Amino acid sequence: MITKQANFYQSVERNFDKAAALTKHPKGLLEQIKVCNAIYQMNFPVKIGNNYQVIEAYRVQHSHHRLPTKGGIRFSHLVNQEEVMALASLMTYKCALVDVPFGGAKGGVKISPRKYTPEQLQKITRRYTVELVRKNFIGPGVDVPAPDYGTSSREMAWILDTYQQLNNGELDSAACVTGKPVNQNGIRGRTEATGRGVFYGLREMLSFKEDCKAMGLEPGIEGKTMVIQGLGNVGTYTGSISIEEGGVKVIGISEIEGTIVNPKGININKLVKYRRDKGTIIGFPGTTALKDRDDWIGLECDILVPAALESQITKINAKKVKARIIAEAANGPVTADAEAILLKKGVVIMPDMYLNAGGVTVSYFEWLKNLSHVRYGRIEKRFDQNAYTNLVTTVEELTGKTISTREKKMLTRGPDEIDLVRSGLEETMSTAYGQIREIYRRKKTVTDLRSAAFINAINKIASDYLTLGVFP
Known about the structure:
The protein is of the alpha/beta class. 46% of the residues lie in helices and 15% in strands.
């Protein structure tokens, strides 16, 4: 019997093979790009209460064509080697797509975080970090972890502290992990990065009139209806930013406790507060709960956003999809079998390896910040602000007209760190989609955006290998 996670890894490989067949690279080179370079499976004891538990964990470095390798650490009872291999593979292609100079990696610890206290989770995280250090699977120029499902900035701070204790005096030690708290060498905008990247990607896609016409949609993201599965970090920020900055109407939300709908729209920020207070999304004012939680997949909407775990849309339920666009905010939410069904139905799939690349993009900015030891905006903010002020003052003097203090403040403000991070992320997502779209529209043999994204990533990685002379 094949497990759910095995299907995920097989889906990634099938998608790779489908795209690779449309390239002209040598078979051996394609095999090298596809295979995982290093797999570290570990079992270590941790004292929990009065007993010892043996924890199963992994770190997979998929590709060493660029160093360091980069990828999150997942805490989940569903973790296994094949799942981590699949996630590491996607990280390689994701980094290549958005021109972030990392190889792909991923980590996994086979626990359910809800069953442990913060103190116990700290023990597990620190011991896992020790194991990574022992085998040289972590370091600013070696392998740089980040948060993933079940982890957050808190765990990243524990990893940083443990690494620094074991590498006393290392100048660039803060760059050994990203997604850290801002006051622990993190970067502003990292928490929202993946969700914001999803928004930027969708907005870019919907800016092309001819593409929207082919989907039967009006151009522009404003007014589009959206259903989100998963109210974690990615789902929350995707929804709230899409509403506040894009004018999107979120009409459905699905979580572990159920699915709620409101055709008039759901306020994500108020819903998050309600769930924090009540422990559930069910009963949120103005919404109706569906009888079957899994019916989120068949809700009529323009954009369906699976933002939870992999393999959520399968060949069994794909026929229920009524959305025009599936935006893969999670990693691997649509299986390869399901994708074949959806493409025949005319559903456009925005692939995960592009759409959720906001996290690794801003992680790259954080890594650069840690290596430079300078906060973004610190050097140029005041200079820019003074220059803009002088410019506005000169215009006022030449025209004999003045503007209000509020208007002047808005026009002359120098960029803060978060402004620069968001600007860099927006540019990255826009450029990457342009490259994918060019391949999709130029090559008649490419019938979907995922294949176009894979081809773009494969070409870039192959170029790196050939430049290195590994495949002369």
